[in-house]
Structure formats: C-alpha cells, structure tokens
Design a protein that fits this description.
heterodimer, A: about 260 residues, mainly alpha, 9 helices, about 0% strand, globular, B: about 675 residues, alpha+beta, Immunoglobulin-like, 2 domains, eight-stranded mixed sheet, 37 strands, about 25% helix, elongated
Chain lengths: ~260, ~675
C-alpha cells in the first residue's frame, strides 16, 4: 500500500513517462502510415484480403519494410536512452518524494554517468547471459526456451533496477562492472522481491499483449486500448522500480563514483 | 543432448504428447479395392510383373536385392535393348547429373557425413528362357556416362506382344537421407532403390530420363510380390498390403503384394509408432516417432478430407491402403515425397501459446503436405503421366486439386493461415507465387529444362499451373471446369495421359469458346466478350507473359456542350453561343493491360451516388477507355479476384483524384507499428 501511495503521489511523473513513450511510438507509426499511404497513392486494397495485400505491399516496397524495422529499432534505442537518462530523476523522486528542482537536478547530475555506465554493463551482461542460455537450450523443446528466456530477461531487468537504485540512492559505483554483476546476485538472493518484480513485469507484458490482441482482432478503439495499456505498464514498471528501491543499500563492493 | 538437471522438470513437462493408439485396423487382404472402385483397367496397362527380394543390413544401410521382372512388349515394334533407370546412382558422386545440379543439397537439406553416398550396383542380369527350358542366359549391360541410366542388351529381339523374363541381382547402398530416399540413424526410407526399365511407347520409342534435380519419375504399371528381410525390431511400411510375416531369429521376412502400381517403396525404423484408421474401406496407417505423434489426428483429418474431395472429383481411389510416413528429426530430407499407396509427410509446427492467444492459426505445415502428397496418388499414381517430360501434369494439377481439397473440406471459409479475423487462403499462396516468376520460364517444359540456378521451378510448375487452372475455373464456372477435369481423370486412369490429352479434355469439357457476358450489359451494341479456352491454355502453358491489369486513370470533368458555330442544313454557319457553363459531370476511366498475357477481366465502377456497374473488358488491346455521364468515385478491376494469375493487385482499385478514402492498409499497419513500438519501449523502459 505504501508503494501505491508513493506511486499515486508521483502520478505526474508516471504520466510524463507514458506520454513520452506514446509520443515516440506514435511518431514512428505516423511515419510508417504516411509512407504507406504515399506509396499506395490513389489506390486501395482490391478486396478484404489484408494479409495478401500486406505481403504484396512488402514485396513491392522492401525499402519500406526495412525502414519500418530500422524505425522500430531506433524507437527502442531512443526509448532506452531517454529512460536511462531519466532514471536517476525518477528513482530519486520515487525514493525521497517531492524535492526542489535544484535538489533533483543535483542528484541527477551526480548519478547520471553511473546510471548510464551500469546500464551499459547490464546490456552487455544480459546479452551474454541470454545468448549462453539460448545456446544451452538449443535442441530442447521450444516451450522450455519460451519459459526460461523470459524468466532470465525478467531477472536481468530487476537486477538493472537494483543497480540503478544503488547508484542513485546509495552511491554505488556504476562504472564498475562488479556493481552490475552483484546486482544479479542480489536479485537472486531476494526471492520475494524478485518474484514481485517478475510478477509486475508479467503484468506489464500482459496488458500490452491485450492491446496487441485488440489490434490483431481489429477491435474498435484498438489504439486507445494499446495506449491505455502502455499507461498501466508504466505504472507497473514504476512499482517494480519501487520494489528495487525498497531493497535498501546493498553491499556492491565498489566505491562510489565520486570517490574513484 | 544432456538436459541440465535444473531444467529436467521443465523439459519433462514440455515433452512430446503421445496420443493413445486406437484399435488397430486389420490389413486388407487385397491391394486393390473392389472392382467397382478400381474401375476398368485398360488391357495393355499392365506391362510388368515384379518379384523382389530385399535384405536390409541396418548397420551399413545396404540392401542386397534380387528382382524377377516379367516385361511385356506392348509396342508395335520389336525391341533388342532395354534402358534401365538406376535412380539411386544420382547420389553416387559429385559429378552425377543430379548432384551437379543440386550441389549436394535439396530443399535446404544436405548430408552430414562424408560417407553418405548412395548407389545401386547391378551385379548380374540373366534372361530366363521360357518353360520348359527355363535356362538363364547372362545378358550384357552397361551404365551410361550418366550413371542414373543403364542400357541392357536383351539378346534376341522381343516381338510386339511377346514378353521377357529377367533376373536382376543388385546391391543398393542407401545414402544419408537429404533428398527423399536414404537413412538417418535407424530410419530407412527406401525409394527408387531397384533398377527400373524405361517406358516403351506404342511407336517403339523408349522414354527414359536421366535423374536430374527437378526430375521425378515415369514407369509402367505392374504387379509386385516383394519379400523384405529386415531386423526383427523394425516397424515396416510399404506399398501395397502385407500378407505374411515370418520370424527368423533376430530377423523377419515380410511378404508384400501390390497391384497396378508403377513403383514399390518401403520404410523401416524400430522407433515408429503405428496408428491406423479406416475410411470408406481404405486402411490409413501412420508411422510416426513419438516427437510427432501429437499431430497424427490432424494428418488423419487432412487425409480424409483429401480422400473425400478427390474421390468426388476424380473417381474412386483404387487401392486398399494408404501409408503416411512421418520422417523423424534428422531425416527431414525424406519428407514430402509420394510413392504408390505410401507417402512421406512433414511435421505440424506447434504454434507458441502467446501467438495462439493472439489468434494465429495455420493449416500449412504438415497437414498441407499430407493433402499434397496424397494428391499425387491420383496424378502421379493413378494417371501416371510422364513426370520428367511434363512435370506440370502431376505437380501443377495436384496443386490445383490441393486448393480445391481445402475449399471442399472447409466447414468455414477455407483459410490456411489466420491471424485474428484476417486470413490467407490456399489460392492466395498460388497467386503470391506469381510475383516475379511469370516471365521467367514457361510451364510446359521437361523437368530438366528447369535449372536450379534460374530457380522458380516450384512457382512455375506447381503454382503457376494451379493459378492458370483456377483462373480458367473462375472464368468458365466451377461446374464446367470440374466436369471436364472429372472426365479427364476417369478416362485416363492407368493410361499415362500427356499434356495434349489434358488440354483436349478441358476444351472438350468446357468448350472452345465460352461467352463471359456482355461487354456492357446496358448496351447490347458493345457485343459479348468470349474466352478462347485453347488460347488461354496455350498462353498460360507455353507463354511467359504475366497477367497484370491496372486502373490507369479516372478523369471526372464537366461535360462539353454544343455551343459555338455549326453549319446548318444549307451549309451556313449558325449559332455562336457563349461556351457552356461547367455543369453536368462526365467521367472517363482508362484501363491498362500492363502484362503480356491477355485474359478478359471484369471492371466494377462505383459512382459518387454509391451505385455500381460492371463491365467486361476483353483485354486484347493495351488500353481501354470507358465513359460515363456521371462522377466516378472508384474503379476496381477483377473485383471478385478471379484472375489468380495476377499477382500484382494493389493497382487494381483506384479512387478518383480528390476522393477521400481509406486505402485499407496504412491504418492497420500504423496501428501495428505503434503497438510494436510500445512493446519494445516497455522492454527497455520502466
């Protein structure tokens, strides 16, 4: 309940994060929609066979397909960078409540480098762990991978939350790879918090999956459902971050960045 | 592979689902169904009588074989030599015709080890004198430079109507399977494993074909008595019916009998589970490893749907058995091949749970292979056209029928892939394949004319043929086309029809010319548009033109009046009124035949008042102009999608400039893009 109260107190922040996400996604969608409409010119689908038309369109305009893929990746990259940059502010606000802009700005500047560095270490570490796991699971039934890989992804996400919280709130040294590595260990050593984080992530994916289902099924107002789902997902993600903050200071065995 | 201990529970939970086997259906006693189902067998159809003995060494994947062939000269000339196919020699070395073309790969499969060569080595051939002497005379024979062919000197000439009895000893080394036949571990798929004579046509010409990459097979009908000597633990499936099993220590001898077939294939594997079912007196037997057993019911339903559809369209299936072989993992190269009364299928792909929850369904993997391979039982097994000389007669007509099987068997709208409310249909796959292959090469060519380097064999022979036939069906009507194809299938059972036979049957059944309708139903003066069936078949089978129509322009403008100077009856200029004020609308629609192939096409014109009219354009000229006395909102070519030969459809439905319309694609793609982006952003964000 405390976490929910904290979250409610920071609703403007949640809203701002959500709007940022929706803006990035909507810009990407707008660009694609405009390109497709321009490519079709005065023409429309000859019948209701949307999948055939999409396949024919993709075959006729491969550059738009690759452009869409690049656009999607860039959206993700942009979102990742924006979130890494904003994370110190969000963590400080969620952990310590309303603060003056100067105080927040100071904490942001003080921990931004560490947060970006630990994010990069996590990206590297998570990539290696997932690749190793995927190769270990090769040849096993696909269902095993379908369970194991998301679990490890979720673990990595919570470990990243822990690292960032330790850097912002407790001065852990983000540039040290050990900070990232220890976060994985701490995540595993706190099964209750980990389970909560995994459940919150699962809930995040579930609401977005429901939105995707609405789009696929052609439900009326599908875009509104997807956007609403994204808002819920941001709120759930903030709760997950609060779970990481609640872990308190952890022995990361690395000096603070400013002592380096 | 060893599963980590901590993953064992998960692995076990995700292990194969093995459905219980129903009560076994007993083996039929006769390889043929009752005579009424078999239908009349032409007197000269049965040319061969085989007695085969094969002993499989499962460790070396080697077969010691002995064949007795009684062959009859049904031609009008005496023959002194007999060509033999040694198909297995295609896999003997890198420089065989097959391997040189295929580069040691087939459908993405390649052998894994260096020792995986396959060959057939004929060690002796004797001609047995007629009774009472029964003396065996050794004959001379030699492999040709292309080792998939051999020439046999018969000694004395065989006169028309006479026969000869040959004793053939041979050793067949199975290749590591990557192209239809061979072994993988303990799995053995034994196809094209014994020397097979060419086909002697009535004019005395032998029809033999070097085994090339795309080439399949052509052989005479005959009866078979076959003894398979295999390790006792092997589960065996074969062409025909099993009528006796004799155990002998750690081995067993199985006696098979097949009638009126042109090949004998078999499979052996100790890991097979066996599922049998019966449909209309036909025993359907599936041989499957546990990993694929979950899908046996899906394959059975597909098999029954194919049987029902094809029996209804082409007459009764004449044999009493169908054996469906599921090659195990590692033997994917054996999948998707037909032999008389036996075929190999491919696995059903399980759709991951999340995708299922999204509404993704498919009837392509596995079950479509079963529909396709069973379809060969008619076009390859029963009609038995020369697949090497005219592969479209089998693969193309079979693909045509596969689409119809899907339509016939569907209790819904006949989709094969579904994503939520959106679907791809079997004819979409046929249409889709036309993109890019239309001008590459013509359909009606021998298999060897299609080079794997050029590509497009499947798109041309399988799917362009189907697109042509289904376009014809859509234009002339289901009833006329189906009746013509039915009459063809009934008339040519056991008779090896050629392409000319099929074309003539279609023309006879449908008519030389079919009236499609008035060019303009409201104006009889515009005449009628006819389809020239023979011309369509000629262009479709032997041409490389594409069907592509396009709405070139829609021009809405003010009608011109009669203001100005005109001469009256006396030749005097009169009038001189001011130009007419813009008022009444008129519209001009310009259609363009962008492709080289001419097919009549329907046009639907929608006006601003939301009324529609239809016209038919013969397509003979490059452009066609239509005029209307009111504002046209949109024009749609081929509104019912009858022309499956036309792959490019996104220029078929045009709106007039300035019209506000939903193109139908940009909005859903935009929604999908935004959703995908939000999923990615959630993955990287809070």
């Amino acid at each position: 309940m405390t976490a929910l109260r904290t979250l409610a107190g920071a609703w403007r922040w949640v809203l701002a994060l959500w709007l940022g996400e929706v803006a990035i996604a909507a810009a990407f969608a707008f660009a694609l929609r405009t390109h497709v409409a321009a490519a079709l010119s005065d023409f429309a689908l000859p019948d209701d066979r949307l999948l055939y038309a999409a396949a024919e369109f993709a075959g006729a305009h491969p550059q738009l397909v690759s452009g869409a893929i690049v656009g999607l990746l860039l959206s993700g990259l942009l979102g990742g960078v924006v979130w890494a940059v904003l994370a110190p502010l969000v963590i400080a606000r969620l952990a310590d409540g309303p603060q003056s802009a100067a105080a927040l700005g100071g904490r942001w500047l003080g921990s931004l480098g560490g947060v970006i560095a630990t994010t990069a270490w996590h990206a590297l570490g998570r990539g290696l762990v997932l690749m190793g796991l995927a190769s270990a699971l090769a040849g096993m039934p696909g269902a095993v991978s379908a369970v194991a890989l998301p679990l490890v992804w979720g673990l990595g996400t919570f470990a990243l939350d822990l690292s960032r919280a330790q850097v912002v709130l407790h001065g852990a040294r983000g540039t040290a790879p050990r900070t990232a590595a220890m976060a994985w260990l701490h995540a595993i050593k706190r099964p209750k918090l980990l389970a909560l984080a995994l459940a919150l992530q699962a809930a995040q994916w579930l609401v977005l999956f429901a939105g995707l289902a609405a789009v696929v099924q052609g439900t009326g107002g599908a875009v509104a459902i997807v956007r609403s789902g994204a808002l819920v997902a941001v709120a759930l993600g903030s709760l997950r971050l609060l779970a990481a903050i609640s872990a308190g200071p952890l022995p990361m065995a690395a000096e603070p960045d400013d002592a380096a | 592979m060893r599963v980590p201990a901590w993953l064992l529970p998960l692995a076990l939970a995700c292990g194969p689902r093995i459905p219980p086997a129903p009560a076994p259906v007993p083996e039929p006693t006769s390889p043929l169904r009752e005579p009424a189902r078999v239908g009349p067998i032409p007197a000269d159809a049965k040319v061969q009588q085989w007695t085969l003995r094969a002993r499989l060494d499962a460790a070396t994947h080697r077969i010691e074989g002995h064949a007795t062939l009684q062959w009859r000269n049904t031609s009008t000339v005496a023959v002194r030599t007999m060509p033999l196919h040694l198909y297995m020699n295609a896999f003997r070395a890198e420089d065989t015709a097959w391997m040189a073309e295929g580069r040691g790969r087939h459908r993405g499969n390649a052998p894994h080890s260096a020792g995986g060569w396959g060959y057939v080595d004929v060690t002796a051939i004797h001609r047995v004198e007629p009774a009472p002497e029964r003396k065996a005379v050794a004959l001379q024979y030699r492999e040709l430079p292309e080792p998939s062919l051999m020439e046999l000197d018969l000694g004395d000439a065989i006169a028309p109507g006479e026969g000869v009895e040959l004793e053939i000893d041979f050793v067949t080394q199975l290749p590591e399977v990557f192209a239809r036949t061979g072994y993988a571990g303990e799995f053995h798929m034994v196809g094209q494993w014994y020397p097979k004579p060419g086909v002697l046509h009535r004019d005395g010409s032998w029809h033999t074909h070097a085994f090339t990459y795309h080439s399949e097979f052509y052989a005479d009908f005959g009866d078979y008595e076959v003894e398979l000597d295999v390790p006792a633990n092997m589960v065996v499936g074969a062409t025909g019916v099993l009528h006796e099993t004799v155990r002998d220590g750690d081995r067993k001898r199985l006696q098979y009998r097949a009638q009126m077939v042109h090949d004998f294939a078999w499979t052996a594997d100790p890991g097979f589970l066996e599922y049998t079912a019966e449909h209309e007196g036909i025993r359907i037997r599936q041989l499957v490893h546990p990993e694929h057993a979950f899908s046996v019911d899906a394959h059975l339903q597909a098999q029954i749907a194919a049987l029902d559809s094809m029996q209804g369209r082409y007459g009764s299936y004449p044999w009493s058995t169908i054996t469906i072989v599921h090659p195990p993992s590692g033997a994917e190269g054996a999948a998707g091949m037909e032999y008389p009364t036996l075929f190999t299928t491919s696995p059903v792909r399980e759709i991951p749970g999340p995708l299922r929850a999204l509404g993704l369904r498919e009837r392509v993997s596995g079950v479509f292979t079963t529909v396709h391979e069973f379809g060969h039982q008619y076009f390859q097994g029963l009609l038995a056209s020369d697949e090497a000389a005219a592969p479209w007669l089998d693969e193309g007509m079979n693909t045509t029928s596969n689409v119809l099987v899907v339509e016939d068997g569907a209790d819904d709208d006949g989709w094969v892939v579904r994503v939520g409310p959106h679907a791809l249909f079997a004819d979409d796959f046929v249409r889709m394949a036309q993109q890019g292959i239309g001008t590459l090469q013509a359909i009606d060519q021998p298999a060897e004319a299609f080079s794997p380097v050029v590509g497009g064999y499947g798109g041309t022979v399988y799917r362009r043929t189907a697109a042509l036939m289904l376009t014809l069906r859509n234009l002339v009507g289901d009833a006329a086309f189906d009746r013509a194809l039915h009459e063809y299938a009934i008339a040519w059972r056991f008779r090896h029809p050629t392409g000319a036979d099929l074309e003539q049957a279609l023309v006879d059944g449908i008519g030389e010319r079919v009236t499609l309708g008035a060019a303009d139903p409201a104006d009889p003066a515009t005449g009628t548009v006819e389809l020239d069936v023979r011309a369509l078949l000629e262009a479709g089978l032997r041409g490389t033109g594409e069907v592509d129509y396009r709405v070139h322009a829609i021009v809405n403008r003010s009608a011109m009046g009669h203001a100005g100077w005109h001469r009256n009856a006396e030749g005097v200029l009169v009038g001189g009124e001011a130009p007419t004020e813009p008022g009444a609308d008129e519209a001009v629609v310009v259609l363009h035949r962008a492709g080289e192939m001419v097919v009549p096409v329907e046009v639907e014109i929608r006006f601003a008042d939301d009324t529609t009219v239809r016209r038919i354009w013969s397509g003979t000229r490059r452009t066609h102009t239509l005029q209307f006395d009111k504002h046209v909102r949109s024009v749609r070519l081929d509104p019912e999608g009858k022309l499956l030969l036309e792959a490019v459809r996104l220029d078929n439905h045009r709106f007039a400039p300035g019209e506000d319309f939903d193109d139908g694609l940009s909005q859903p793609l935009g929604q999908a893009a935004e959703t995908a982006a939000l999923l990615v952003l959630t993955g990287v964000g809070p």
